[in-house]
Design a protein that fits this description.
Helices cover 30% and strands 14% of the residues. The chain has 17 helices and 17 strands.
């Protein structure tokens, strides 16, 4: 992927070297495949002599989020609550919000206006794709016409709905596709017309969802007005038990602080447990910060981040890290080794309960998919449970890979300890539905013909991110949010089930 470094990044290169290079552990000193910054020489104005200050020089300590926004706004320092204009590195929109965003852009900037940078706009149809609904299909047509008119470089189009594999440009769920295609980079600002855009914070960048009006303005100017959020730090230490996944961690945190506990706050995840997680698990953590009201989630970039990005982007990037003296709104500390598998009961993500406490809840189906729970690692986890049990599922179990790449992984990657079997083979032996075409699927309900949509009142264990009434279709449906481990275990019993029943 080729794109230019943002104007803000160039203009603030000198500041980046002097102010953003905070002391950090060895892995975070790495500047991932970046070229040397161009340092701009600025002559100091003449000043009258004065006596030295008794306190010496003072440097403003900042959190990661504050530093990223300071760089993007060409400010030497920022504090929570300040409103600043920032230069946007990437703007993403999709088939649900894209048409509205395009309409606002044309209304305010003119029918013949051009976007601020055709290489920084990413347009991904993903929500309502595999449906016969004419309005849903029309939305994709609107995106296609706009991208052709504007010569948008990164439009992941789909034309043949009968066979997604015949569409090499089509990717699938926007948040996972953004990562896989190299659009997520440390130190940058990524905005999207979707609340789960915070998913990209796993890469050490500022990423958040915005509305169509703001997105229309960004299309025309490349700038956004943002209020600097205070940061809550979550320190997760301890060895991750073999029956827990990142979904358990974020559900536990949301249950601890509530769905409003991080309202307009940045949620920064650090600690030995976080450092041990792969990128897809870190994405799961950041994906659901919006379920706690968070403005954005962020994980410090390290060697795991840099290795994931190898071969995915040719754009220079420079990570930043919270200063040791940075001021945090509050701190939460968790010993992960003592946690148990959890679920979020209907109808709120903070309605937390231990999975074993819900063993008498009879279910009608299981859904494994979405930006939160439809990544390669999520399907490998589910396959691990099915493999360990050697049994067949007792309720319909729907599998929806997030992207075309994930779909291919499901059919090609051997599951560890399986003797070479792939996820798809294990799912077939367990009696699951054949993995569906990659998309958001039934996570947001969608038209009635959406695969696995709940068109009747049902009880579902799902790896998705929200369990509001009507979220997956019928307004009387009940959704239990869970990790892929717990979802697979529940499919095998027909009840909400602790995965330790099969993994221990």
């Amino acid at each position: 992927m080729a794109a230019s470094v943002s104007a803000a990044a160039k203009a603030s290169a000198a500041f980046a070297h002097k102010e953003l290079a905070a002391p950090a552990p060895a892995p975070t000193q790495h500047r991932a495949r970046s070229k040397p910054c161009r340092v701009r020489a600025v002559a100091s104005p003449a000043r009258a002599p004065r006596a030295p200050a008794s306190t010496g020089s003072v440097k403003t300590a900042m959190t990661m989020t504050e530093k990223i926004l300071a760089r993007a706004s060409e400010r030497a320092g920022l504090e929570p609550g300040e409103n600043v204009w920032v230069d946007v590195d990437v703007l993403m929109t999709h088939d649900v919000c894209g048409p509205g965003t395009i309409g606002i852009f044309k209304k305010e900037f003119g029918e013949d206006a051009k976007v601020w940078d055709r290489e920084k706009v990413v347009i991904i149809p993903d929500h309502y794709i595999f449906t016969s609904d004419e309005r849903a299909n029309r939305n994709v047509d609107i995106l296609r016409d706009f991208c052709m008119e504007q010569n948008i470089k990164y439009f992941y189009d789909i034309k043949d709905l009968s066979n997604f594999k015949a569409n090499p440009d089509y990717k699938g769920v926007c948040h996972v596709a953004l990562a896989q295609e190299g659009h997520c980079r440390p130190g940058e600002v990524l905005l999207g017309t979707d609340s789960h855009t915070c998913n990209a914070g796993a890469f050490g960048q500022f990423a958040t969802g915005i509305g169509n009006t703001d997105a229309g303005f960004v299309l025309g100017t490349g700038k956004a007005l943002l209020k600097v959020p205070p940061t809550i730090r979550f320190v997760l230490d301890g060895e991750m038990p073999p029956y827990l996944l990142a979904k358990d961690l974020i559900l536990h945190i949301i249950g601890e602080i509530s769905v409003s506990g991080a309202t307009y706050k940045s949620m920064e995840f650090v600690g030995s447990t976080v450092e041990s997680l792969n990128m897809e698990e870190r994405m799961t953590l950041c994906n659901m910060v919006i379920e706690a009201g968070g403005k954005n989630g962020v994980v410090p970039a390290d060697e795991t981040t840099f290795k994931y990005l190898e071969g995915k982007t040719s754009v220079d990037y420079e990570p930043v890290y919270s200063d040791a003296q940075a001021r945090f709104f509050s701190d939460y500390r968790f010993d992960v080794s003592k946690l148990e598998p959890v679920v979020a009961k209907p109808h709120s993500p903070d309605n937390r309960a231990l999975a074993r406490e819900c063993k008498d809840v009879k279910i009608d189906r299981v859904y494994i998919g979405s930006c939160t729970g439809g990544k390669t690692e999520d399907f490998l986890a589910a396959a691990k449970v099915f493999l360990a049990s050697g049994k067949k599922v007792k309720v319909p179990t729907f599998l929806v890979p997030a992207t075309q790449k994930v779909w291919m992984d499901v059919y090609s990657l051997p599951v560890p300890g399986s003797g070479g079997k792939t996820c798809s083979q294990i799912f077939e032996e367990a009696g699951c539905d054949t993995p569906a075409s990659p998309s958001c699927g039934a996570c947001l309900g969608g038209p009635r013909d959406t695969y696995a949509r709940m068109n009747e009142p049902m009880v579902c264990v799902s790896t998705t991110n929200r369990n509001f009434p009507g979220r997956m279709g019928h307004k009387e449906g009940q959704i239990y949010l869970a990790s892929p481990y717990t979802a697979a275990a529940s499919a095998l019993t027909g009840y909400v089930t602790d995965p330790r029943d099969f993994l221990m």
